[in-house]
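Final report, Chapter 2: Outcomes

The project's central promise was a pipeline that accepts a single protein chain and returns its three-dimensional structure in a standardized token representation, suitable for archiving and comparison. That pipeline is now operational. To close this chapter, we reproduce one record exactly as it appears in the project archive, with the input sequence first and the structure output second.
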Amino acid sequence: MSSKFRNILAWQKGVDLAVEIDRVCGNFPRHEQFGLSRQMRNAAVSVPSNIAEGRGRGTIPDYRRFVLQARGSSYELETQIEIAKRLGYMGEAEATNLSENVNEIQRLIHGLIRSLDAQV
């Protein structure tokens, strides 16, 4: 199994989202620097990181387990975006755009999981 994780669309979009989340969190109130902002950044970075780490593992079951962790982090991030919106840290349009990006990554991850399941 090759470790060419950079060719995985879910990884590519996950990296883009992590960069965008970092930018958005930079506009949060200062008191959120180590609260919700940190959690959002961690969850966003976790998505592509787990895909990459899983791809580098030697077996499909290991890969699948890490992809499932990436999916879990995406749901965590989706929830945190909603909380940030309700707290007024971002506007409706920005939250909607970020959530749509997360949902697209979730669909890609679901497809990746189905593909891995077919290989077992």
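Archive annotation: The chain has four helices and no strands.
This record, like all others produced under the grant, will remain available to the consortium after the project formally closes.
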